[in-house]
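---------- Forwarded message ----------

FYI, see the Small CPxCG-related zinc finger protein record below. Original note from H. follows.
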Amino acid sequence: MGRSTCDGCGRPVSIAGGIANLWTFGDRDGSDGSAMTLEFEDGSSHLLCYPCIEALPENPTAADLEEL
């Protein structure tokens, strides 16, 4: 499991995967939440936490990400 920051709000997030969070399921890894990498229709990709993902409009662009 990797650690990074959300491209939208900058909070520390964990990137689930592998065996690192097998027993804790990511809830005690020192981060503020989990994240996903999304690819926008404009060709850009961004690592975003779930609150930022929920705040995005339909068909988001990189400009929408700057408004977060």
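H. also flagged this: The chain has one domain: 2-66.
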